[in-house]
Protein backbone atom coordinates (compact mmCIF):
# COMPACT_ATOMS: atom_id res chain seq x y z
CA UNK A 1 0.00 0.00 0.00
CA UNK A 2 1.48 3.38 -0.94
CA UNK A 3 2.14 5.62 2.02
CA UNK A 4 -0.02 8.62 2.80
CA UNK A 5 2.68 10.76 1.23
CA UNK A 6 2.23 8.95 -2.09
CA UNK A 7 -1.54 8.82 -2.15
CA UNK A 8 -2.69 12.24 -1.06
CA UNK A 9 -2.80 15.14 -3.49
CA UNK A 10 -3.79 18.72 -3.07
CA UNK A 11 -7.24 19.17 -4.66
CA UNK A 12 -6.30 22.60 -5.99
CA UNK A 13 -2.87 22.13 -7.57
CA UNK A 14 -2.97 18.29 -7.80
CA UNK A 15 0.58 17.95 -6.51
CA UNK A 16 1.58 15.46 -3.86
CA UNK A 17 2.42 16.75 -0.41
CA UNK A 18 5.91 16.75 1.00
CA UNK A 19 6.44 16.30 4.71
CA UNK A 20 7.51 19.88 5.25
CA UNK A 21 4.78 21.49 3.13
CA UNK A 22 2.61 24.00 4.93
CA UNK A 23 -0.97 22.80 4.68
CA UNK A 24 -4.43 23.52 6.01
CA UNK A 25 -7.02 20.97 7.11
CA UNK A 26 -10.60 21.97 6.39
CA UNK A 27 -13.77 21.02 8.26
CA UNK A 28 -14.22 17.78 6.32
CA UNK A 29 -10.54 16.84 6.69
CA UNK A 30 -9.40 17.81 3.23
CA UNK A 31 -5.70 18.64 3.14
CA UNK A 32 -4.82 21.64 0.97
CA UNK A 33 -1.53 23.49 0.60
CA UNK A 34 -1.65 26.62 2.71
CA UNK A 35 -0.58 28.68 -0.28
CA UNK A 36 -3.19 27.10 -2.57
CA UNK A 37 -5.93 27.62 0.00
CA UNK A 38 -5.14 31.28 0.45
CA UNK A 39 -4.73 32.08 -3.24
CA UNK A 40 -7.72 30.12 -4.54
CA UNK A 41 -10.56 32.43 -5.51
CA UNK A 42 -12.78 30.46 -7.91
CA UNK A 43 -15.21 29.35 -5.25
CA UNK A 44 -15.53 29.57 -1.48
CA UNK A 45 -13.60 26.98 0.48
CA UNK A 46 -14.61 25.36 3.73
CA UNK A 47 -13.35 26.88 6.98
CA UNK A 48 -9.97 25.79 8.29
CA UNK A 49 -9.88 23.41 11.23
CA UNK A 50 -6.11 23.29 11.64
CA UNK A 51 -2.94 24.28 9.83
CA UNK A 52 0.75 23.51 9.94
CA UNK A 53 3.21 21.20 8.24
CA UNK A 54 1.87 18.11 6.50
CA UNK A 55 4.05 15.99 8.77
CA UNK A 56 2.36 17.51 11.82
CA UNK A 57 -1.11 16.83 10.43
CA UNK A 58 -0.29 13.20 9.77
CA UNK A 59 1.14 12.86 13.26
CA UNK A 60 -1.87 14.55 14.88
CA UNK A 61 -4.92 13.03 13.17
CA UNK A 62 -5.49 9.33 13.34
CA UNK A 63 -7.68 9.21 10.21
CA UNK A 64 -4.41 9.44 8.28
CA UNK A 65 -3.25 6.20 9.81
CA UNK A 66 -5.78 3.80 8.28
CA UNK A 67 -4.37 1.01 6.15
ZN1 LIG B 1 -1.69 22.76 -3.68
How would you describe this structure to a colleague?
The chain is an alpha+beta fold. It has one domain. It has three helices and three strands. Strands 2-1-3 form a three-stranded antiparallel beta sheet. The N and C termini lie close together (8 Å). The structure holds zinc ion (ZN). Zinc ion (ZN) binds next to loops.
Give a quick summary of the entry.
By secondary structure, the protein is α+β, with helices and mostly antiparallel strands.
The biggest sheet, with number of strands, parallel, antiparallel or mixed sense and barrel status, is:
3 strands, antiparallel
User: Which molecules other than protein and nucleic acid are bound?
Assistant: zinc ion
Mean pLDDT level: 93
Give the tally of structural domains.
1
Neighbour order of strands in the largest sheet? 2-1-3
Written as H for each helix and E for each strand, in order along the chain, the element string is HEEHEH
Helical residue percent? 25-40%
**Tally of contiguous helical segments:** 3
Number of strands: 3
Amino acid sequence: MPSIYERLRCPICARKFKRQDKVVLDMINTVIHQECYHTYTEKPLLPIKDEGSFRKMVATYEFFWDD
